[in-house]
Amino acid sequence: MTVKYCDYVNGDDGTGDGSAGNPYKTKDQASAGLTGGDEVRCAVTPATSVGIATWTDDSDIVTLASAKTATICDCDDAWTDSANVISSNSAAYNKFLTNALLVDIEPAFTTGKLCYLTLTEMDLSGYEQVSFWFRCTAAVSAGDYQIKLCSDTTGDTPVDTINVPVCVSNQWRACTVDTGGALGASIKSIALYAVNDLGDVTLFVDSIIACKAKGDPDALSLTTVISKNTSTEGWWPITGIDGTTVYLGRTSVNDNYESKTDHYYRGTTESVTTYMIDVIELDMPGGSYTACEKIVSSGSSYQSWLKISGGWDLSTQTQTGITFQGTMTHQGVYLGVDAITGSIWLEKLGFLYGTRVLQIAATGDWGLILEDMYFAGSIFNSLHSGNSGYSRYKNIYLVNCCTGNYNSFDTSDATSNIYARLGPTTCEIENIYAWNGSSYCCVYTCGGTVRNVYAYHCYTPVQVSGVVYIYNLQTGGTSTNADIRCYGGVCKVQNIDEYSSTPVEFISTYADEIPTEVSFTNGNDHRKYTGIGNVLSDESVRHTDSGLSWKFSPTVDTDSNMPLREVIGKFLCKASIQVTISAWFRRTNTGVTAKLVCKGGQISGVESDVTDSMSAAADTWEQLSVTFTPTQTGVVEIEAQVYGGTTYSVYVDDVEAS
Fold this sequence. Notes:
By secondary structure, the chain is mostly beta strands. The protein has 3 domains: about 70-210, Jelly Rolls (Sandwich), CATH 2.60.120.430; about 310-535; about 560-655, Jelly Rolls (Sandwich). The chain is built from 2 helices and 47 strands. The strands form 6 sheets. It has a 23-stranded mixed β-sheet that branches. Strands 16-19-3-4-18-17 form a 6-stranded antiparallel β-sheet, with no helix packed on it. The protein starts with a strand and ends with a strand.
């Protein structure tokens, strides 16, 4: 087994050798030449306590016991402009609270001071970093614009100069700049400067705060994430900090701040020790779907995996946490895997924002394992992986992921978040926790087993096609769609805590082509939803006073060629002995047909269907019977079949054999 180490902050691809003492910088270099059984270990991003904080259910506010930052400018006040510059307070493009600073630079302006704001004198000597939101209508190179903290009142005598980092056009970016020393002790104004002339552009700035020194356990900023614990909760992005109040981030970094609830914390209201991680900032990629880092090798089989693991303390070579990375904007794929056939195992990695978190474009059959993975505020899909063979996903935490036309955690194709396309696919999904998935679905799988999905305020908790088994599905909050959307196949569900009024929705484009069925079992609650109707256990209409009946409710007006059907009993029959099976039927309208059926061909001696049909009036119990004599010993299945109308129901109860 070969182990290589990488450290994006302190490593070097040119001079490193992949050892813990001299790591590479990127996963590209660390994974080169490795194969199954080998491992790339990534330096930990330590989680530090920011003390006791109060988390409130159904709120985007987390309240700290004491402030960790100082607000320099909330960008809600009017700035003073230089010639050929027009600034204003924009509520339309605000990133945080009421307004953002909008700066319209006219063509006649070249470089220099754009505008300034006089401040009440501030002592910022206890801080070393400045964090803020920045956006421009043109692409920005590092240092094209500067924020200056000044000792005079007109923004002309800078004490601290903060270079705005690389920004893509028309994208909000969370920026945290380390000045390497204490900020000024007597700051009386703040100014925005243009170092290079980018022409006729518009800038947006919001929420400028002073933060503790990098590495300080209290260095909370707009590029950190917070959580209630370090292992069994999701990590939340931050959209703003005002004193002791931390505002949780929206599902899209480009959303302006509005009174919406799609990013709220969902859980127990309590005051608990709260943790932060200072997210590693990746170099800005050249395009939305360009990878920041790549895995350039893979394992050789499903028994021999190449492992990429995070959370390693390189000084002790022990795994102590996770590795959290981000570009601080919705730009780029964090981790790409191109043109390979093989198997990859990812563990204890976290990702903030991004267009896609993981994109795999494999040339053939491959396998993927994800364990203990954390996603925060990712737009589009958190995982995009192309064709797959065996895949396993366990302990996945998705917070405020997905806007646009993609989903939070998909194992299928390009309309969701973790992919494992149907074919020879074996997919196992276990322990998925999702908060505020804003479009499409939380989990989409084309086949396999899903255990323990907890989806809170997600657009659609689960989307399935193929043959899927789901154990324990818990949803909460406002689900725009059904709890389960089915594109075809057979889905078995055991234990569902449904929240939406529509448990199952069938997508007709595919359901017309593929036999479709979703079955629920939850204690005495048994249900089967199909593309043509539903079969539910019922306690309200019974032939006898105890137990359950079956309620058949067609939703599509079909005929005897496509009835709503369900097996209501399996019976052991002896050769050459006559068997009679009976059941009691009741219908709400005579426009619906109901039959008791023993399908022919199940057992020798019964070559054709044996049936009995209802003739009784509506709301009247009628006993139906089928009689046959098999010529061999074996088990037969007895069905109830219902068809006709879309608003009628048939009840079946008290099945007997003689």
